[in-house]
Amino acid sequence: QVQLVESGGGLVQAGGALRLSCVASGRTFRVYAMGWVRQAPGKEREFVAGVTWDGDSTYYADSVEGRFAISRDSAKNTVYLQMNSLKVEDTAVYYCNSHPAPFDVWGKGPQVTVSS
Question: What backbone torsions phi and psi does residue 75 show, to the nearest 5 degrees?
Fold first, then answer.
């Protein structure tokens, strides 16, 4: 059974930065493309960023392009999301999972709150 454990959320002022981490276990992590999605209160879950299985390619939602950076360390079974120039509208719970086809389980997801 796969397990996903995210960390690194918190409260930050607009313009600040945070780094999220996601440690995966229970699967051959390195063969999966991975991604981050987020869900704000009252809104549907939305895609944020993805990285290919080998880490060579990354892709982003338009709303975070140029501000966020996804990366992975397959030796550590870990995927990261560096979030810079944070905006109030980035406030959400963030989750990592296989992308585009997520595993059947989700982590608890760290809360990211950006204040004005």
Answer: -65, -25
